[in-house]
C-alpha cells in the first residue's frame, strides 16, 4: 500500500462518510406508519434489513417500501400505505404464512397480540367528507372493525376517536370521496421494544 | 475445447436467469433471500452495517444475530469456494452493466479509458484506482456506526434495482433510482467500471476471496506465451493473468480462458 493510495483511501472514505451524514440529516421525512408489531422507531431503523419480504408477502398490498422522499434513513423500510390496501392483520385475517411478524428475518417486526396493535389513527377532513358536506355516505362507519372508533352525529356525520382507532386504514381505503376525506397518520402508535 | 466457446453463453444464461428470478419471479432483494422460516442467505456487507448500526452488543442479544449470522456464513462459504463468482454470474446489477457494455460494444463506441490519450493519463488515475471500492466500503461501515442506520443500503444500486422490482409497475422508488442509470453510464468510461473500482460489495467479496483456492486461471507452463497483455484488456477486473499472484479480484467470468488469442489460458480447479 503506497502512501498516496492510503491518503486517497482516507480522503474518499471521509468524504463519503460526511455525505451519508449530510443525507441523513437533510432528508428527514415525517414519521411513517409501520406494519403492526414494528419495534420502536429508532431501533426499527437499526434492525430492519430492508429486504422487502414483508412488502412482497402482504396479502392486501398495504405494505410498500419507503423511498428517498420518506427520508434517507427510512429508505427501503416498510410502511403502510392505506391507499394501496388496508392492514388486515389487525383484524386477525392474515394467514399464518403471510404474517409480517413471521416473515421478518431480523425481528424488526415482532409478534404482538391483536389487542395490543395500534399502528396509528385515521384523521377526517370534514371539508372533503361527503356526509359532512351535505351528501349521504356511511362507508367508513360501515367498514370500521373497531367498536365506537367511528360514531355518528345525528346518524349521518362520522366523528373519529383517535384513542380507539387502531390505524388499520380500512376506512381510508374505502372512502369514496375524491380527494379522500380520510388520511392515516402514525399519531398515537404503540410499538414494542426490541427483544 | 467446446466449453471454451460456450462459456460466455453459459454465463449469459445464468445471469439472465438470476435477473429474471430477482426481478420478476421472486421480486425480492438479493441482499437477503429468505429460504424458509429462520433460514436466510444474506449478503455480508448489509448485515455488517446493521450490526454496526445496532451496536455489536445489542446485536449479539437479538434475533438479528441468530438468523442472519447463519445467512452470512452461507454467503461467505460460497465465496470461499467460488470466489467472486456472484459478481459475474448472478449479481442483477452486474447483468445490467454487462448488457450496457454489450450495447456500447455493438454501437462501436470506444470507452473513454481504452482510448490512447485518456487510458494512460496519470491525473485520471484517481478515478481508476482499485482502492476506491475499499473507501466506499470503509465509509459504509463508519457511516452506519455513526448515523445508526445501514447508510450504504440507502444508496446501493443493487438494492434499489431489486426494490424497484418489488414496487413493480407502480414503481414506488424515489430519486434513489437515479443511481442505477448513473452506474450504467460509468460503463462509457470502461467496461464494468462500477464493479471494478467502486462497488463495496465487490470489495468485501474480494477480501473474502483471498481465502478462495479454487478455479483460478493459469497460463500453461509449456506454452511460449509472450505476456502480450491481451488478458488484461479482456478481464473486467483488469487482471494480467501472466503476472497476477492472488486472483482475489477474479470474478470467475472466464473471459480470459474463452478469448485468449494464444489459447494458452486454462482454468485449474485446484
What would your notes on this structure say?
The complex is a heterodimer of chains A (195) and B (270). Chain A has 195 residues and is α+β, with helices and mostly antiparallel strands. Helix content of chain A is 26%, strand content 11%. Chain A has helices spanning 3-26, 41-47, 53-57, 100-103, 139-143, 170-174, and strands spanning 63-65, 78-80, 121-124, 150-153, 157-160, 182-185. In chain A, the strands form 3 sheets. In chain A, strands 1-2 form a two-stranded antiparallel ribbon. The two termini of chain B are 20 Å apart. The model of chain B has no long low-confidence stretch (mean pLDDT 86). Chain B has a two-stranded antiparallel ribbon. Chain B is mainly α.
Could you write a compact summary of the structure shown?
The complex is a heterodimer of chains A (195) and B (270). Chain A has 195 residues and is α+β, with helices and mostly antiparallel strands.
Radius of gyration of chain A: 20 Å
- Total strands of chain A: 6
* Main beta sheet of chain A: 2 strands, antiparallel
Task: Give the low-pLDDT segments of chain B.
Answer: none
Task: Please give the share of residues in helix of chain A.
Answer: 25-40%
How many whole angstroms does the radius of gyration of chain B measure?
19 Å
**Low-pLDDT residue spans of chain A:** none
Beginning-to-end CA distance, first to last residue of chain B: 20 Å
Instruction: Summarize the largest interface: chains and residue counts.
Output: A-B, 45 and 53 residues
Mean pLDDT of chain A: 91
Which range best describes the helical content of chain B: under 10%, 10-25%, 25-40%, 40-55%, 55-70% or over 70%?
A: 55-70%
Q: What's the oligomerization state?
A: heterodimer
Strand content of chain A: 5-15%
Structural class of chain B: mainly alpha
Tell me the distance between the termini of chain A: 43 Å
Taken from the alpha-carbon principal axes, the silhouette of chain B is globular
Strand order of the largest sheet of chain B: 1-2
The strands making up the biggest β-sheet of chain A line up spatially as: 1-2
Q: Roughly what is the average pLDDT of chain B, rounded to an integer?
A: 86
Number of helices of chain B: 15
Number of strands of chain B: 4
Amino acid at each position: 500500500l503506497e502512501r498516496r493510495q492510503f491518503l486517497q483511501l482516507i480522503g474518499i472514505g471521509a468524504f463519503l462518510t460526511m455525505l451519508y451524514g449530510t443525507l441523513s440529516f437533510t432528508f428527514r421525512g415525517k414519521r411513517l406508519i409501520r406494519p403492526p408489531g414494528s419495534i420502536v422507531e429508532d431501533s426499527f431503523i437499526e434492525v430492519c434489513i430492508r429486504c422487502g419480504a414483508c412488502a412482497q408477502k402482504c396479502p392486501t398490498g398495504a405494505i410498500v417500501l419507503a423511498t428517498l422522499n420518506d427520508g434517507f434513513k427510512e429508505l427501503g423500510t416498510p410502511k403502510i400505505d392505506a391507499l394501496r390496501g388496508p392492514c388486515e392483520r389487525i383484524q386477525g385475517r392474515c394467514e399464518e404464512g403471510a404474517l409480517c411478524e413471521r416473515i421478518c428475518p431480523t425481528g424488526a417486526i415482532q409478534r404482538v397480540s391483536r389487542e395490543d396493535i395500534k399502528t396509528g389513527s385515521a384523521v377526517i377532513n370534514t371539508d372533503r367528507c361527503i356526509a359532512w358536506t351535505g351528501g349521504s355516505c356511511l362507508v367508513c362507519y360501515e367498514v370500521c372493525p373497531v367498536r365506537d372508533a367511528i360514531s355518528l352525529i345525528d346518524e349521518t356525520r362520522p366523528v373519529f376517536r383517535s384513542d380507539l382507532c387502531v390505524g388499520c386504514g380500512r376506512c381510508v381505503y374505502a372512502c369514496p370521496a375524491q380527494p379522500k376525506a380520510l388520511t392515516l397518520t402514525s399519531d398515537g402508535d404503540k410499538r414494542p421494544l426490541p427483544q | 475445447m467446446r466449453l471454451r466457446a460456450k462459456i460466455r453463453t453459459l454465463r449469459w444464461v445464468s445471469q439472465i436467469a438470476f435477473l429474471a428470478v430477482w426481478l420478476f419471479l421472486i421480486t425480492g432483494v438479493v441482499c437477503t433471500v429468505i429460504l424458509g422460516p429462520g433460514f436466510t442467505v444474506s449478503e455480508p456487507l448489509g448485515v455488517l452495517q446493521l450490526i454496526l448500526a445496532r451496536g455489536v452488543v445489542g446485536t449479539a442479544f437479538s434475533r438479528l444475530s441468530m438468523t442472519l449470522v447463519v445467512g452470512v456464513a452461507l454467503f461467505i462459504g460460497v465465496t470461499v469456494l467460488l470466489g467472486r463468482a456472484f459478481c459475474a454470474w448472478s449479481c442483477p446489477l452486474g447483468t445490467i452493466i454487462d448488457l450496457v457494455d454489450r450495447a456500447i460494444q455493438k454501437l462501436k463506441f470506444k470507452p473513454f479509458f481504452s482510448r490512447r490519450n485518456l487510458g494512460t493519463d496519470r491525473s485520471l488515475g484517481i478515478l481508476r484506482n482499485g482502492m476506491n471500492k475499499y473507501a466506499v466500503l470503509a465509509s459504509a461501515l463508519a457511516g452506519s456506526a455513526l448515523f445508526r442506520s445501514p447508510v450504504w443500503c440507502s444508496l446501493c444500486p443493487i438494492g434499489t434495482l431489486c426494490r424497484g422490482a418489488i414496487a413493480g409497475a407502480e414503481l414506488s422508488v424515489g430519486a434513489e433510482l437515479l443511481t442505477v442509470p448513473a452506474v450504467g453510464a460509468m460503463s462509457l468510461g470502461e467496461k464494468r467500471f462500477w464493479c471494478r473500482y467502486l462497488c463495496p460489495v465487490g470489495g468485501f467479496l474480494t477480501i473474502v476471496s483471498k481465502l478462495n483456492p479454487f478455479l483460478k486461471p493459469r497460463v500453461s507452463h509449456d506454452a511460449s506465451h509472450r505476456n502480450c497483455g491481451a488478458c488484461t484488456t479482456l478481464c473486467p477486473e483488469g487482471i494480467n493473468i501472466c503476472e497476477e499472484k492472488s486472483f482475489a479480484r477474479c470474478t470467475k467470468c472466464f473471459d480470459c480462458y474463452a478469448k485468449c488469442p494464444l489459447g494458452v489460458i486454462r482454468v485449474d480447479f485446484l
